[in-house]
Amino acid sequence: MEIQNSNLVVLFKSGTTDDNDPYLKALESHGYHGHCIPILDFHFINLDLYTQLLRKLDQYLAIVFTSPRAVQATRLALNSTDTPLLLIQSVKCYTVGKATALAAQKLGFQTSGESTGNAELLSQFIVEDSEQAKNREVLFPCGNLCRDVLCETLKAHSQYKRFSVTEVKVYETIVKDDISDEIFMITQSKVPVDSLVMFSPSGVPVLTKTLKKFPQLSVNSVKILAVGPTTEGELKKHNIPVYATLRRPDPQSLIDCLQK
Protein backbone atom coordinates (compact mmCIF):
# COMPACT_ATOMS: atom_id res chain seq x y z
CA MET A 1 0.00 0.00 0.00
CA GLU A 2 1.63 3.23 -1.16
CA ILE A 3 0.19 6.39 0.29
CA GLN A 4 1.24 9.78 -1.04
CA ASN A 5 -1.81 11.93 -0.25
CA SER A 6 -2.47 13.76 3.01
CA ASN A 7 -5.10 12.90 5.61
CA LEU A 8 -5.35 9.13 5.71
CA VAL A 9 -8.78 7.84 6.77
CA VAL A 10 -8.99 4.15 7.73
CA LEU A 11 -12.35 2.42 7.34
CA PHE A 12 -12.95 -0.69 9.42
CA LYS A 13 -15.59 -2.27 7.25
CA SER A 14 -16.26 -5.23 5.02
CA GLY A 15 -17.75 -5.58 1.60
CA THR A 16 -16.67 -3.91 -1.61
CA THR A 17 -13.15 -3.74 -2.98
CA ASP A 18 -11.07 -0.59 -2.93
CA ASP A 19 -11.81 -0.02 -6.64
CA ASN A 20 -15.57 0.39 -6.27
CA ASP A 21 -16.15 1.30 -2.63
CA PRO A 22 -18.37 4.43 -2.51
CA TYR A 23 -16.78 5.63 0.73
CA LEU A 24 -13.30 5.52 -0.75
CA LYS A 25 -14.50 7.36 -3.84
CA ALA A 26 -16.06 10.08 -1.70
CA LEU A 27 -12.91 10.44 0.38
CA GLU A 28 -10.73 10.77 -2.71
CA SER A 29 -13.02 13.40 -4.24
CA HIS A 30 -12.68 15.50 -1.06
CA GLY A 31 -8.90 15.32 -0.82
CA TYR A 32 -8.55 12.39 1.58
CA HIS A 33 -6.83 9.07 1.06
CA GLY A 34 -8.91 6.15 2.29
CA HIS A 35 -8.05 2.56 3.10
CA CYS A 36 -10.34 -0.33 4.13
CA ILE A 37 -9.48 -2.94 6.73
CA PRO A 38 -12.05 -5.79 6.88
CA ILE A 39 -12.66 -6.61 10.51
CA LEU A 40 -15.56 -9.04 10.05
CA ASP A 41 -16.12 -12.20 8.03
CA PHE A 42 -19.52 -13.65 7.09
CA HIS A 43 -21.08 -16.87 5.95
CA PHE A 44 -24.68 -17.64 5.06
CA ILE A 45 -26.95 -19.94 7.08
CA ASN A 46 -30.56 -21.21 7.03
CA LEU A 47 -30.94 -20.58 3.30
CA ASP A 48 -33.26 -23.59 2.87
CA LEU A 49 -35.63 -22.21 5.49
CA TYR A 50 -35.37 -18.72 4.03
CA THR A 51 -36.13 -20.03 0.54
CA GLN A 52 -39.35 -21.57 1.84
CA LEU A 53 -40.38 -18.25 3.38
CA LEU A 54 -39.64 -16.36 0.16
CA ARG A 55 -41.94 -18.73 -1.72
CA LYS A 56 -44.73 -17.25 0.45
CA LEU A 57 -43.59 -13.66 -0.07
CA ASP A 58 -47.07 -12.57 -1.10
CA GLN A 59 -48.30 -13.34 2.43
CA TYR A 60 -46.24 -10.50 3.88
CA LEU A 61 -46.87 -6.79 4.05
CA ALA A 62 -43.17 -6.13 3.66
CA ILE A 63 -39.64 -7.44 3.73
CA VAL A 64 -37.02 -5.52 5.74
CA PHE A 65 -33.28 -5.33 5.02
CA THR A 66 -30.91 -3.66 7.47
CA SER A 67 -27.67 -4.81 5.82
CA PRO A 68 -26.32 -5.64 2.35
CA ARG A 69 -25.52 -9.16 3.60
CA ALA A 70 -29.21 -9.87 4.11
CA VAL A 71 -29.83 -8.80 0.52
CA GLN A 72 -27.04 -11.10 -0.69
CA ALA A 73 -28.67 -13.99 1.17
CA THR A 74 -31.97 -13.09 -0.48
CA ARG A 75 -30.37 -13.18 -3.91
CA LEU A 76 -29.00 -16.66 -3.22
CA ALA A 77 -32.36 -17.88 -1.92
CA LEU A 78 -34.33 -16.35 -4.80
CA ASN A 79 -32.12 -18.28 -7.21
CA SER A 80 -33.78 -21.42 -5.83
CA THR A 81 -37.33 -20.16 -6.28
CA ASP A 82 -39.55 -19.20 -9.17
CA THR A 83 -40.69 -15.97 -7.51
CA PRO A 84 -41.90 -13.67 -10.32
CA LEU A 85 -40.54 -10.15 -10.59
CA LEU A 86 -44.05 -8.68 -10.35
CA LEU A 87 -44.47 -10.29 -6.92
CA ILE A 88 -41.12 -8.93 -5.73
CA GLN A 89 -42.13 -5.47 -6.92
CA SER A 90 -45.54 -5.68 -5.25
CA VAL A 91 -44.22 -6.34 -1.74
CA LYS A 92 -43.10 -3.34 0.28
CA CYS A 93 -39.37 -3.29 0.95
CA TYR A 94 -37.86 -1.22 3.75
CA THR A 95 -34.10 -0.72 4.05
CA VAL A 96 -31.46 1.04 6.11
CA GLY A 97 -28.84 2.92 4.09
CA LYS A 98 -28.29 3.63 0.42
CA ALA A 99 -25.98 0.65 -0.17
CA THR A 100 -28.58 -1.78 1.14
CA ALA A 101 -31.34 -0.07 -0.84
CA LEU A 102 -29.33 -0.20 -4.07
CA ALA A 103 -28.59 -3.90 -3.60
CA ALA A 104 -32.29 -4.62 -2.99
CA GLN A 105 -33.31 -2.58 -6.03
CA LYS A 106 -31.05 -4.72 -8.20
CA LEU A 107 -33.18 -7.70 -7.19
CA GLY A 108 -36.34 -5.88 -8.25
CA PHE A 109 -37.55 -4.56 -4.88
CA GLN A 110 -38.97 -1.06 -4.69
CA THR A 111 -37.39 0.34 -1.55
CA SER A 112 -38.23 3.03 0.95
CA GLY A 113 -36.95 4.16 4.34
CA GLU A 114 -33.26 4.11 3.43
CA SER A 115 -32.72 7.67 4.64
CA THR A 116 -33.78 6.79 8.20
CA GLY A 117 -30.22 5.73 8.97
CA ASN A 118 -30.69 3.00 11.61
CA ALA A 119 -33.04 0.18 12.60
CA GLU A 120 -34.81 2.10 15.35
CA LEU A 121 -35.77 4.99 13.07
CA LEU A 122 -36.66 2.58 10.27
CA SER A 123 -39.05 0.68 12.53
CA GLN A 124 -40.78 3.94 13.42
CA PHE A 125 -40.99 4.74 9.71
CA ILE A 126 -42.59 1.33 9.02
CA VAL A 127 -45.21 1.90 11.72
CA GLU A 128 -46.16 5.28 10.30
CA ASP A 129 -46.07 4.07 6.69
CA SER A 130 -48.32 1.09 7.46
CA GLU A 131 -51.01 3.06 9.25
CA GLN A 132 -53.78 1.90 6.90
CA ALA A 133 -52.46 -1.59 6.11
CA LYS A 134 -54.58 -4.57 7.16
CA ASN A 135 -51.80 -7.13 6.71
CA ARG A 136 -48.99 -6.50 9.20
CA GLU A 137 -46.84 -9.56 8.57
CA VAL A 138 -43.18 -8.54 8.14
CA LEU A 139 -40.32 -10.74 6.93
CA PHE A 140 -36.97 -9.79 8.46
CA PRO A 141 -33.83 -11.61 7.25
CA CYS A 142 -30.85 -10.63 9.40
CA GLY A 143 -27.53 -11.68 10.92
CA ASN A 144 -26.82 -13.62 14.09
CA LEU A 145 -25.57 -10.49 15.87
CA CYS A 146 -28.56 -8.39 14.89
CA ARG A 147 -29.87 -6.19 17.71
CA ASP A 148 -33.55 -6.59 18.64
CA VAL A 149 -34.40 -2.91 18.17
CA LEU A 150 -36.49 -3.30 15.02
CA CYS A 151 -38.46 -6.32 16.19
CA GLU A 152 -39.10 -4.84 19.63
CA THR A 153 -40.32 -1.53 18.21
CA LEU A 154 -42.69 -3.21 15.76
CA LYS A 155 -43.96 -5.69 18.33
CA ALA A 156 -44.51 -2.85 20.80
CA HIS A 157 -47.28 -1.72 18.45
CA SER A 158 -48.86 -5.16 18.29
CA GLN A 159 -51.77 -4.30 20.54
CA TYR A 160 -52.99 -1.68 18.11
CA LYS A 161 -51.15 -2.35 14.85
CA ARG A 162 -50.97 -6.16 15.05
CA PHE A 163 -47.45 -6.37 13.61
CA SER A 164 -46.03 -9.87 13.38
CA VAL A 165 -42.33 -10.20 12.55
CA THR A 166 -40.87 -13.36 11.05
CA GLU A 167 -37.18 -13.04 11.87
CA VAL A 168 -34.79 -15.47 10.19
CA LYS A 169 -31.04 -15.53 10.68
CA VAL A 170 -29.54 -15.77 7.19
CA TYR A 171 -25.88 -15.06 7.91
CA GLU A 172 -23.35 -15.34 10.71
CA THR A 173 -20.86 -12.64 11.55
CA ILE A 174 -17.39 -13.78 12.57
CA VAL A 175 -15.12 -11.21 14.16
CA LYS A 176 -11.44 -11.56 13.28
CA ASP A 177 -9.23 -12.44 16.24
CA ASP A 178 -6.45 -10.06 15.33
CA ILE A 179 -5.80 -7.26 12.84
CA SER A 180 -2.28 -6.35 13.97
CA ASP A 181 -0.70 -6.96 10.57
CA GLU A 182 -3.17 -4.68 8.85
CA ILE A 183 -2.70 -1.94 11.47
CA PHE A 184 1.08 -2.24 11.21
CA MET A 185 0.82 -1.62 7.45
CA ILE A 186 -1.03 1.61 8.14
CA THR A 187 1.61 2.83 10.58
CA GLN A 188 4.23 2.45 7.83
CA SER A 189 2.49 4.91 5.53
CA LYS A 190 4.24 8.11 4.50
CA VAL A 191 1.59 10.30 6.14
CA PRO A 192 0.05 10.13 9.60
CA VAL A 193 -3.37 8.62 10.12
CA ASP A 194 -6.04 11.29 10.53
CA SER A 195 -9.13 9.23 11.38
CA LEU A 196 -10.34 5.71 12.13
CA VAL A 197 -13.95 4.91 11.19
CA MET A 198 -15.70 1.98 12.86
CA PHE A 199 -18.73 0.64 10.99
CA SER A 200 -19.92 -2.15 13.28
CA PRO A 201 -20.19 -2.54 17.05
CA SER A 202 -19.14 -6.19 16.71
CA GLY A 203 -15.60 -5.21 15.73
CA VAL A 204 -14.99 -2.73 18.54
CA PRO A 205 -13.39 -5.20 21.03
CA VAL A 206 -10.74 -6.44 18.58
CA LEU A 207 -10.01 -2.88 17.45
CA THR A 208 -9.58 -1.75 21.05
CA LYS A 209 -7.24 -4.67 21.81
CA THR A 210 -5.17 -4.08 18.68
CA LEU A 211 -4.78 -0.31 19.09
CA LYS A 212 -3.09 -0.86 22.46
CA LYS A 213 -0.14 -2.31 20.53
CA PHE A 214 0.28 0.89 18.50
CA PRO A 215 0.76 3.96 20.70
CA GLN A 216 1.14 6.14 17.61
CA LEU A 217 -2.57 5.51 16.98
CA SER A 218 -3.73 6.47 20.46
CA VAL A 219 -7.12 8.12 20.86
CA ASN A 220 -5.27 11.35 21.64
CA SER A 221 -3.57 11.44 18.24
CA VAL A 222 -6.30 10.27 15.83
CA LYS A 223 -10.00 10.93 15.43
CA ILE A 224 -12.37 8.02 16.08
CA LEU A 225 -15.64 8.07 14.13
CA ALA A 226 -18.62 5.76 14.58
CA VAL A 227 -21.23 4.73 12.03
CA GLY A 228 -24.53 4.92 13.89
CA PRO A 229 -25.48 5.29 17.55
CA THR A 230 -25.08 1.59 18.37
CA THR A 231 -21.42 1.59 17.29
CA GLU A 232 -20.93 4.87 19.13
CA GLY A 233 -22.28 3.31 22.32
CA GLU A 234 -20.01 0.28 21.98
CA LEU A 235 -16.93 2.48 21.52
CA LYS A 236 -17.82 4.50 24.60
CA LYS A 237 -18.28 1.28 26.58
CA HIS A 238 -14.63 0.56 25.82
CA ASN A 239 -13.64 4.07 26.92
CA ILE A 240 -12.86 5.23 23.39
CA PRO A 241 -13.82 8.88 22.84
CA VAL A 242 -15.90 9.38 19.70
CA TYR A 243 -15.03 12.43 17.62
CA ALA A 244 -18.22 12.22 15.54
CA THR A 245 -21.04 9.81 14.71
CA LEU A 246 -22.50 9.22 11.27
CA ARG A 247 -26.26 9.31 11.68
CA ARG A 248 -26.74 7.66 8.30
CA PRO A 249 -24.58 4.92 6.75
CA ASP A 250 -23.61 6.80 3.61
CA PRO A 251 -20.47 8.50 2.19
CA GLN A 252 -21.79 12.04 2.48
CA SER A 253 -22.39 11.59 6.20
CA LEU A 254 -18.77 10.50 6.55
CA ILE A 255 -17.52 13.59 4.72
CA ASP A 256 -19.76 15.83 6.85
CA CYS A 257 -18.33 14.34 10.06
CA LEU A 258 -14.73 14.64 8.90
CA GLN A 259 -15.24 18.28 7.96
CA LYS A 260 -17.17 19.34 11.03
Automatic annotation (TrEMBL):
UniProt KW keywords: Heme biosynthesis, Lyase, Porphyrin biosynthesis
Enzyme Commission number: 4.2.1.75
GO CC annotations, alphabetized: cytosol
Domain Tetrapyrrole biosynthesis uroporphyrinogen III synthase stretches: 23-255
Record GO biological process: heme B biosynthetic process; uroporphyrinogen III biosynthetic process
Pfam families: HEM4 (PF02602)
Gene3D superfamilies the UniProt entry points to: 3.40.50.10090
Biological function: Catalyzes cyclization of the linear tetrapyrrole, hydroxymethylbilane, to the macrocyclic uroporphyrinogen III, the branch point for the various sub-pathways leading to the wide diversity of porphyrins. Porphyrins act as cofactors for a multitude of enzymes that perform a variety of processes within the cell such as methionine synthesis (vitamin B12) or oxygen transport (heme).
Family label: Belongs to the uroporphyrinogen-III synthase family.
Protein name: Uroporphyrinogen-III synthase
Lineage of the species this protein comes from: Eukaryota, Metazoa, Spiralia, Lophotrochozoa, Mollusca
